[in-house]
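Researcher: Next sequence.
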Amino acid sequence: MSMRRSAANRYAASEDFLERAERVIPLGSQTFSKSRTQFPLGVSPLFAERGEGAYLYDVDGNRYLDFICSLGAITLGHGDPEMSAAVVQQLGQGVLFSLPARLEAEVAERIVDCVPCAEKVRFGKNGSDATAGAIRLARAYTGRERVAVCGYHGWQDWYIGSTSRNLGVPESTRALTHTVVYNDLAAIEKLFGEHPGEFAALIMEPMNFIEPLPGYLADVKSCCRKHGVLLVFDEVVTGFRYAPGTAQELLGVTPDLVTLGKGLANGFPLSAIAGRAEVMKLMEEVFFSFTMGGEALSLASARACLDKQREKKVLAVIEQLGTRLKAGVVERIKRHGLDGALSIAGHPSWTLLAFADCPGASTIELKTLYMQECFKRGILSFGVHFINYAMSDADVDTLFAAYDQIFPIIASAIASGDCRRYLECEPLVPLFKVR
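Model: Next structure:
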């Protein structure tokens, strides 16, 4: 494999290890979003060595302020001492048992206590487990097969078949999934009207980087009720990040089912489906079962994580820090003359810096340039700002100082009409658009 080396060879160990990893792993990664498809070769760290608090260290020994936060799964910080202590204690008692662990009920009770729709809970390992399980449950409950989707809902056939990444998904499966656009109630009404009595569920991210129009989510719920469709909120990202009771608490709309994941266990593999007892009772018949479903280390981390979030008011601290970050980025976009080219949106705990096409500077070229310059300055981001509890005001100041250097470079690249001249690598190629 040929790859372009950075001038300072800052990423030599990463690039060498990529060649080794790709001999045995397609793309050298288990996750598309962590692979070389999303990190421009020659200007990017490609492999992590360790995480510590708000920081991640690559295999070259470079330190980064980590705003990717393991794709949003880290809410407390890397290696949080209380989570680590809980996991080590559980390790001494066992990891996986031949009977259910007490922890399963103890974590489920905590979810029921704080999530409005949650009356019963089942666990999985990845967010895709939870979303696929919720759809199977909805189909069983309603006796219907079609589903409507709004957002990103994982890798399994029922959803990914509706995207451009549908290689290997049967057409018969793809035909049952229909995509709707967020904040377009009329499109949902039209879809349900065109297929009366055929939709089992509408699964949607209740909010990502676009805020719901006034009354939109309540109207979506009413529309689902009218058509006998279950409303499922995919809160794999927003759950235990936006509010203690998840985004449904923040937004004041209670769905029939919710899927949870990243915020549950501070990086340990755990997801959940929760919802109305009447619907969840069918989980006694629907086959949603894993050898690792009751794995105890992840559950121990989840119990400690949920307890710490409550006791330390973690999400309020995250929101306060994120609010300051968002305001500071807005101010810098204006100060550096980048209105129209850059914008920031989303809940303070999870914001996105978005890039717009400009003459001589495409969206993807600007994003590549941004990443190239961020990595040089020890900022790990592809435009996203996930906040975790280990971050401080000083870390936000570090980001601001970096942006005060990076934004003028972006402005110069736009003004030149030739953004590629500023790149030390080939531009990224978009994976696929889901939001």
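Model: Confidence is low (pLDDT under 50) at residues 1-7. The chain has two domains: 12-78+314-422, 81-312.
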